[in-house]
Amino acid sequence: MSEINLPSTDTVVKTASTYARDLLERVITTFLQAFIGGVAVTTPLDGSMWYAALAGGVGAVLALAKGLLARVRDVTNSASLAKGV
Fold it and tell me: Coil, strand or helix: which one is 7?
């Protein structure tokens, strides 16, 4: 009968923490990038700042979905779809 080698709880917590920090950073930076891009587009076109915020929110939700998909696809500490990251 073969033994089952499971990682320690410290390793699991550190892995989850690393992944969560990576995903949170990606979601926040995506929101800020999309928001700034939206402001840059809506200002000269006399659009509402709320449209820029909405564009930033949509971008952040898509970044979150991609990060969760990356976690399901491969067991890593990263929210990246690239192999080995």
Answer: coil
Q: Is 42 domain-assigned?
A: no
For residue 54, the enclosing domain spans: 49-76
CA 11 vs CA 25, 38, 48, 51, 67: distances in Å: 21, 40, 47, 42, 20
Tokens of 34: 């999309």
Question: Which pLDDT score, from 0 to 100, does residue 12 have?
Answer: 64
pTM more than 0.70: no
Q: What are phi and psi of 56, to 5 degrees?
A: -65, -40
Domain count of the fold of the chain? 1
Question: What pLDDT digit, counting tens, does each position of 2-51 carry?
Answer: 777 766 676 666 677 878 888 888 888 888 888 888 877 777 777 777 77
Q: Is residue 55 part of a domain?
A: yes
Q: How many CA atoms lie within 13 A of 9 on its CB side?
A: 0
